[in-house]
Amino acid sequence: MSVEKLDAIIFGATGFTGQVVVEDAVDIFRDFKWGIAGRNESKLKDLLVKVGKRTQQDLSHIPIIVADVSDQKSIENMAKKCKIVLNCCGPYRFYGEVVVKACIDAGTHHVDVSGEPQYFNGMQLKYNDLAQQNGSYIVSTCGFESIPAELGVQYAEKNFPGTVNSVELYWESKPNYQDKSSKAILHTGTWESAIYAMQHAKEMLTLEKKVNTEKIPSLSPKLWMRPYAHQTEGLKSYFAPFPVTDRGVVQRSQRLAYAYDKKRPIQFEIYIGMK
After folding, report:
1. Tell me: the pLDDT tens digits for 105-132?
2. Which of 244, 240, 242 is nearest to 201 (CA)?
3. 86, 100, 185, 215: least surrounded by Cβ within 10 Å?
4. Which of 58, 71, 59 lies closest to 35, judged by CA?
């Protein structure tokens, strides 16, 4: 007799991002069957106790699955146990592909919070046809990169009384310096991913060209990236271009909307603020 699949498994649950997702899942997954996965069973058990105390709930019934990216069989077994894998184990450039491939082979959906263009563009080029064939959705950049940017563009278009030609996003970080844990603008894992992205910038551009083969029209007026540090009304920071994940993701969405629905694309640029 086949065992009923879990609705979702949070993989990499004991990491920084994984712990946040697990705590949110206690409320969001209230009506779903879900589990946690990682390579260290004792740490996973401790995590459930810690989150249980924090949320004042008994989580002893939550299934624990031992899975390690260095053990392909364990990843394959995990993928077969659920409908969706929430992959929190990065940098994805090094640890993501084995999970993606296992999910596709199992017909399981895969969601991650990657901000690594080499990874998600590479996965699309390599596995898109197989994922479609097996009915698997592989969805990346579902965290700070790039949900706010995507939703921001949609919000602007929905509420603007006319045709939106372009959107410029300004990101001004304001950490709470009274809280020692919030002094860093970027978490260690995010910083590590950014370093690898910059190290392999040429590869990133090559992959983007291979992915973006759809033809799009020239738009007027043309939105040009501001290559210099500048200020904008209402904000105190000086802003510099930040043409990494968000820019490519938004432009990809706009390109697909034109290719499939003939919707006029919206141009997009993003800038990050510094003192």
Report:
1. 999 999 999 989 999 999 999 999 999 9
2. 244
3. 215
4. 59
Bond preceding residue 117 cis, omega within 30 of 0: no
Give 157-202 pLDDT, tens digit per residue: 999 999 999 999 999 877 654 555 555 555 666 666 666 666 766 7
